[in-house]
Amino acid sequence: MTFGIGGRYMIARILEFLVKWNVPKEYRELVAYLILSAAILLACILIELFLRWIVIELYYLITSRSKRLIPPLIKRTKLFERFAHVSTPIFISFFAASYGDDAEGWIQKGLTIYVLIVLIAILNSSFAVVDDVYRTHEISKKRPIKAFLQIVELIVVILFMIFIIASWIHESPLVLLSGFGAFAAILSLIFKDTLLGFVAGIQLSFNDMVRIGDWIEMPKYFVDGTVSDITLISVEIENSDNTTTTVPAYALVSDSFKNWRGMIQSGSRRLKRAVFIDMTSITFCTEEMLDRFSKYEYLSTYIAGKRKEFAKAAGKSPLQTEIKSSRQKLTNIGVFRIYLEKYLAHNPKIHEDMTILVRQLPADSKGLPLEIYAFATETDWISYENIQSDIFDHIYAIAPSFGLRLFQEPSGHDMSSISMSGS
Q1: Span 237-253, average pLDDT
Q2: What pLDDT shows up at residue 417?
Q3: Which of 71, 236, 375, 392 is most buried, judged by most C-beta within 10 A?
Q4: 150-180 pLDDT, tens per residue?
Q5: Predicted confidence (pLDDT) per residue in 112-144, tens digit
Q6: Does the domain made of 174-265 have the CATH classification 2.30.30.60?
Q7: Is the pLDDT of residue 43 over 60?
């Protein structure tokens, strides 16, 4: 009320000056209110600049060397800067009565909308600070709260709007709330993604389907990377090629995706790859071949044991036919398979307590696939690829020592070699 009286006093003083300046009578009141409005706006600007450049900057200067987590987060989210905006509607509201009852009502309504926007901005910054503090704890990766904070913010905004509208139409907020159900169908269409995202966020969180930091794959959305953020309606993924993909939260519930978290937690990563053997190079082992293979570290005991086994079987069946003798012979690919199993079992980069398997797959036009199935001790991509490369480097190099040829499609060099040999 005091400011209203002061405002009317300022109007009176301005009108006196306008009379002295010979301003036409019909324009004096309009010019007086324009001058008063300009003075009020200038005062608001000066007050806000004072709060921003003096008070807030002084706070930042005092807390710049603090080791506490909160001050840097407040500065990053500009929480206090948004609080400074509140000074403007407060100051203007003191002078609203100076413009008369009719104008005061419209000014107050405009200030209410402005305050609502500022409060929403303050709430957004406050929740950002809460989320950032929460993310410093390990549980945040398992139970992110950003989506829930956004839901709370949305509910608060809706309640603010209901109370404002109720004050404008001079009705109780309960009357508007009672009729809120009539708009449920319309709101469900407008906020379809929000509602679906909210439900999906609850499922993702409570079922522990995905966490921040998880490596996931969704070929449908070209996703192959690490989850960096989970919000109310979307999940943000940083792909391995440094691109960012945003996927609707409900897509992770309705569609399938691969989560590599279990692999990382187990400390092992599966190695599964095949080499193709030229089937024309597969043969029975001669005694000379077995003698040579016995010199390999991993095969001496195995070959010695097989020789004893065959000798014992031969002693029980003195009558040897060609078929029986062929049954008591080792093949070069069989010995090679045993060698690879023992090589993997003795490799320190392979989990010896997990499955180690070297198996034959059905033969096709490319030859006989010999698949390596094991688990590396490293889950990091680069380390894993180095382990895999080292193993297959050895396989490619050692295979000819067993009389085996690795298959590959004929190349231009092969064709030219055939042509030159033919000529």
Answers
A1: 87
A2: 56
A3: 375
A4: 778 877 877 777 777 777 777 776 666 666 6
A5: 788 888 888 888 888 888 888 888 887 777 677
A6: yes
A7: yes
What ranges do the domains of the chain cover?
1-136, 174-265, 266-414
